[in-house]
Amino acid sequence: MKIKATLISERITSNSVEAQNLHASQKFGEKLDNKILYSLPEALFLVQNKKMEIFNHQNKKLTQKEILNKFQRIDKKFKTKYLVFKDLRKKGYIVKTALKFGADFRVYNKGSSEKHSKWICFTTSENQKMTWQDFSAKNRVAHSTKKNLLIAIADEEGDVSYYEVKWTRP
Question: Is the entire prediction scored with pTM above 0.85?
Answer without folding.
Answer: yes
